[in-house]
Amino acid sequence: MESLKARIETLTQEIKSIVPANAEELEAYRIRFLGTKGLVRDVFGGMKDVPAEQKKEAGQLLNAFKQLAEAHYESFSHLQQGNAGNASFADFSLPGADIALGTRHPLRIVENKIVEIFERLGFAVAEGPEIEDDWHNFTSLNMPEDHTARDMQDTFYVAQNPDWLLRTHTSSVQARVLEEGKLPVRVICPGRVYRNETISARAHCFFHQCEGLYIDENVSFADLKQTLYAFVTEMFGPDIRVRFRPSYFPFTEPSAEMDISCTVCGGSGCSLCKHTGWVEILGCGMVHPDLLRNFNIDPEKYSGFAFGMGVERITQIRYQVNDLRLYSQNDVRFLRQFTTNT
C-alpha cells in the first residue's frame, strides 16, 4: 500500500509539471498517461497487491489520481481545437459523419412479420378503437354478464352505465368487422390490449395481440389447422412440429390451444418449454354459432374459424426475451439488439 501511495505521489508531481505547448505534446501526454497502455491503467494494476482491508482506501486514491490526470488533459484541450477554425486544414471532400439510425421495436418487427405472413394467405388488416363499449368487447362475443372477464379486477373500466373500457382483446375489432355485414370475411387484427394485472416478468397491464377471423361457406377445422400450420412454418421454419389440445373459449366451439415444438431445445426439454418439449403460442377454434347469430349471419350457411396470439409471446420465442417489462422500459441497450429491413 505504501509503495502504491509513493508511486501515485511521484506521478502526480510529474503530471503537474507537464505543460504541453501544442497538440502534439498534448497527444503525447494522453498516450503516456491515459492511453490503453498508459501509466494510469498501469497504476490501477497495482490494486491486486493491496491487502483486502486497505482496498477501499486504495480505490479512493486511484480514482482521485485518474481524475487528476484526466482533468489536466482537459485543461489543455484548446490546443487540439486550435486548428479547427483554420479553413486551410478543412477538407470538404471528406464524407460527413455517420448519422446514427434507429431500428424498429422488437414487438413491431414480430407484428409486421405476422401480418406479412397472413396477408400472403389472403387476410386483410383490420383495426379498431382501444376504448370499447360492452357490446363489442363482451356481449356480442358470447360473454354473458356474469363472465369473469367483466370483473373490474380483470378489466380497466373508463365509465359505467353504460360501460366503456380499455379493450381486453382485439376480438372487438372482429366484432366491428362482422357488424358491417360484408361476407366473406378474412381479416387479421393486430393491436394493443389492456388487462388489470400486476406487472412482473411474465405479465403486464398492457400487451399486444394479433387475432384472425375467417367466415365463409364450408369453412372447416381442417382449414383452420392448415392455415395455422402454414403460419408457424413461415415464422419458425419448416422443421417445426405442431399439436392441438382441446380448450374452451366462449366465442369458439370446438376450441383448441396450439403448441409448437420448442425452438430452443428442439423438443428435448429446457427452461423455455418447462421441460415438456412444447411451447403454447395461440388459442383457436371454430366460430360459435351464437356469435354468428349476434351479427345476423346464418350459421346453417356460413361457418368460420378464429385465432388469437400474443405478440410478446411470439417475440419471446423468436428472441428468447425472458422479461416482459423490457419491451416498455425504453432501454436503448436492449432495443439496439434488434435490426431489420421490415
Helical content (DSSP H or I, runs of 4+): 25-40%
Q: What percentage of the residues does DSSP assign to strands (E)?
A: 15-25%
Count of domain modules:
2
Based on the structure given, which CATH architecture of the largest domain is correct? 2-Layer Sandwich
Q: How many distinct helices?
A: 11
Structural class: alpha+beta
Report the average pLDDT across residues: 88
Distance between the termini: 58 Å
Largest sheet: 7 strands, mixed
Give me the side-by-side strand order of the main sheet.
Answer: 1-5-6-10-9-8-7
Overall morphology: elongated
Radius of gyration (Å): 31 Å
Q: For the record, what CATH class of the largest domain applies?
A: Alpha Beta
Spell the H/E element sequence.
HHHHHEEHEEHEEHEEEHEHH
Low-confidence stretches: 83-87
Counted beta strands: 10
Remind me, CATH topology of the largest domain? BirA Bifunctional Protein, domain 2
